[in-house]
Task: structure prediction
Amino acid sequence: MPELPEVEQVRKTLSPHVVGQTIKEVEIRLPRLIQYPTAEEFAGKLKGKTIESIERRGKYLRLNVGKDTYILVHLRMTGALLAVAKTAPEPDYAKIRFVLTGPEDLWFTDIRTFGTLYLIDHDDKIIEGYATLGPEPVGKGLTADYLEKACLKKTGAIKAVILDQKIVAGLGNIYADEALFAAGILPTRQANKLTKEEYEKLVQAMKKVIAQGIKNHGTTFRNYQDADGHKGDNVRHLMVYGRKAEPCKVCGTALEQIKVAGRGSVYCPHCQK
Result:
């Protein structure tokens, strides 16, 4: 699933293509992807709207089309927003087409069709997963003091806590594993038993791995691509994720994989305590 760096890369690459363009019509081939309002209302209300800017919050993209009016997109596992020339063939797995006034159209493609789109008009609908997002690793809100307070009553695994979008926005399985390795903390450690020094290390590690992911245009294992159809290069820089049984790049110990919060978690039994 695309995480913060991948969604940020989509925002950066999509903006030059579609910002300032007016939506002439919306073709919806799979109506259930539209979560709010109905697919018919979604298409009707967007006709004639201009995409004024694109923002990102956590793993969500927000395409602003008027004062307090925006398209909210969650790519989920295999969703993608692509800018494609009108003269080019339509992309594979095309599900929604935003016909624009410019030379390109905006397409939403999705292989597994778990993506979701909403049209929010003057805050008439509260999307819980969006409204309750916690601070991001790229901002100033995520501090060691904040994380320590958030973990105060958390007796579960620290990895489960940092995967909770209400606590840390934008972090998923890839960057959670990478951050815990960088901080030298086992993913199974009880969240409220970390020391102040460990909370500080973990916060700095989250900021570091997210910044690295953004710098390298995201991580592509299978399907992720940005708005230009390009894949991310961060996979070459991963220390543990996806490297089960391979030697640790720091100490040479074979990496191990366990389940934490229902997710496969790769770690180094020597470097992480």
